[in-house]
Amino acid sequence: MTASKPRQRKYDENYDPRPKTVSIGISLITVETDSFIQDDRHVEIPVDDDIVYLTVPREIVFLPCGGASYDIIADLLEQEGYLRKHWKIMSVWTCVSPEEEPF
Global pTM? Predict the structure, then answer.
């Protein structure tokens, strides 16, 4: 077995193979809920839901903590016409091209 010393490369801060922007999908539900009784239980469901797709800078989605910044995404959604007083973010996911799908 040959042990070799790792080559010391200079870090090039201008080279980053990852894309600068990321396409994300956002699942929204309305703040307004509808309530009814089913099987003797009180049930509340959102009146409406929607899925929105945005292209955002990579830093918004991949924070050092491993999550996404919902506050910044909510600000971007407000610019698109989805007001915070009417909608809540349920989930955020990154879009994957068919070539990158694991299955």
Answer: 0.70
